[in-house]
Design a protein that fits this description.
Helices cover 13% and strands 37% of the residues. With 386 residues, the protein is mostly beta strands. The strands form 6 sheets. Strands 7, 8, 9, 10 and 11 form a 5-stranded antiparallel beta sheet that branches. Strands 3-4-5-6 form a 4-stranded antiparallel beta sheet, with no helix packed on it.
Length: 386
Amino acid sequence: MLRRRRRRRCSSPAASPLALEDDDILEDILLRLPPQPSSLTRAASVCKRWRRLVTGPDFLRRLRSIHREPPLLGVFMNCNGYPLFHSVLDPPDAIPPERFLVWSNEGDSWDLQGVRHGRVLIYNYPRHEFIVWDPATGDRRCVAVPQRIRDEGTSVCNGAVLCAAGDEGHVHGRDCHWSPFLVVLIGISSDETRVVACVYSSATGEWGDISSADIRYMDNMVTSSTLIGNSLYWLLEDIEGGILEFDLERQILTIIETPSNIGTDCSYNFQIILAEDGGVGLAVTTHFTLDMWDRKISSDGIGTWVLRKTVKLEEITGLSRNERGHMIIHGYDEDDNVIFLRTDMGCFMGHLQSMQSRNLGKRNFETTCAYHPYRSFYSCKAFRAS
């Protein structure tokens, strides 16, 4: 009786272990891991050699070149004058707040003024200086307020930071860590009838000329800036006072009137957003709806507001009015057109194009402070520097 000969299965050749002994090959493999924070954290815990590779000075630069768009890691918010980070990612990618801590000196009194292109802008009142901090690299620069601003009795009330690089192929948030930056100072005159702006360039190490515009009245400006095109926009403290526009190219301040037929209950009900045509827009929450307005410019240069869209808040959050309670706009991610809405049931991230939302929960988000979205590639260098 013939026995059936058993066929041997062909197995694919195993990867040579010698390949992983080559640092260049291993680094290429690690660079192709998903860009979630947990990927490199786990890789760094394998052994000292792997940790050395993923914390190397060139690793983050190569990581950014492969994964073009930096992810949204979380938000910074003011916590008793200190910038505190809260992750918007789910475990195991959630980043602990202590990973992004910036040290302070005794007697410092800080105000978080903006986050953009991977950098955080803080104002130190006692020292009359701005701090430009890169949480991903640990780099920290101090920029003193120009003496002429202080001599005029102008009070610093707001500011913005942004990358100054404009090279072809440059991706903001990805390639900004070693690029020059701009700091925009916004101040109020001593009689509170004039707003001023001044720009610092890290490339020259100098402040530029002072621009100014007359206002009816303003003693503070608590909202963060929104960058649209070549201009920065702020809501003035009183929404009836309008929107402050600063043209970065022409260095001109302009006051834009807000729509005349919207309520003025609270500044937290308004948010400057990107309009459908790429211009400036305004999101307004009422008791039941989210209204989106676009500012249209005619051929004569006259600007008018047009109501583009009205969405029921239930469609965004899935909550009834009783469930969501008093809703507050807490921030805006200008890179992804996402608005942050705080309710009694948690903080929602709502995409203004798709109207899809995600509840971040109540924990760590029960605050009345503004949220400043932070986008960057998270590398092991970030927690090594903290």
